[in-house]
Amino acid sequence: MYPKTHALLVIDVQNDFCPGGALAVEGGHDIVAGINGLMSDYSAVILTQDWHPAGHSSFASSHPGAAPFSMIQMPYGPQTLWPDHCIQGSKGANFHPDLNTTRADLIIRKGYNPAVDSYSGFFENDHETSTGLNGYLRSRGIDALAVVGLALDYCVNFSAVDGAKLGFDVTVRQDLCRAIDLGGSLAAAITGMQGAGVRVG
Question: What is the DSSP letter of 193?
Answer without folding.
Answer: H
